[in-house]
Amino acid sequence: MKWYRLAAEQKYALAQLNLGVMYAEGDGVGKDDAQAINWLRLAADQGDATAQSNLGVMYNKGQGVTKNEREAAKWFRLAAEQGDAAAQYNLGALYGMGRGVTQDNLRAFMWSDIAAQKLKGEQGRQAAENREITARILSADQVAQAVEMARQCVARNFKNCN
Predict the structure, then answer these.
(1) Which of 9, 17, 36, 56 is close enough to 23 for a disulfide, judged by CB 3.0 to 4.6 Å?
(2) Cβ distance 87 to 49 under 8 Å?
(3) pTM above 0.85, yes or no
């Protein structure tokens, strides 16, 4: 803990991320959502995708902050554009539900498809399920369009996908 804090205070993003997660989960320290938000934000502001994704989760749940789905979507988008699969999954879910973003089934399919190809286990299965649920809402032409959007997004290394 001492070394993480020293490194984090020296603006080392990975140490800030690790401290944020430790405080969020109460791992080796007392659970403290305010400290978690503080350290995650410092790392996220430096561009750490995992910190951005975790910060999005906290805003989405209202954990340590006032629940704010628009703010969650902002952090998920920043992380998704860096290739963070968990953020891509969460951003797809927000698009599907129209929470924090304008509801958009094409983007819901696109982000869910990208996440489903990268994630393993339960989260990968859930991303694939979200993609299939969304596909049932779309026409065949729209599914083809969303698949092409996902292909182009991956080809552009997740930049300018929205």
Answers:
(1) 36
(2) yes
(3) yes
